[in-house]
């Protein structure tokens, strides 16, 4: 019985020490806000500027809101502009993440999934 308790206490202490080591590191994040419109390329350029600014501020992670890619006037336009996950917009953000060596969290993305259209 004492061996189990002893092992448990050692595990808890080890976790606490690891947590203390982690908690002393400060990680800067960038939280981006943009008013997406129907022009995907314009929205991407704004996103790129925000990422560049976040990198200058030494951010390691950048967060974008839902519908960061575009907001359309109608459902048909939304469906028409949707892209696959490996389309130009997501690939553009992938390249920016690699270029700046940071994580990018992209909010809701209008993903084209052909099989789901009714």
TrEMBL record:
Domain of life assignment: Eukaryota
GO biological process, one term: nucleobase-containing compound metabolic process
GO terms of molecular function: bis(5'-adenosyl)-triphosphatase activity
Domain CN hydrolase: 27-118
Pfam family, one: CN_hydrolase
InterPro entries: C-N_Hydrolase (IPR003010), C-N_Hydrolase_sf (IPR036526)
PANTHER family in the cross-refs: DEAMINATED GLUTATHIONE AMIDASE, NITRILASE-RELATED
Name of this protein: CN hydrolase domain-containing protein
Protein source organism: Rotaria sordida
Native organism taxonomy: Eukaryota, Metazoa, Spiralia, Gnathifera, Rotifera
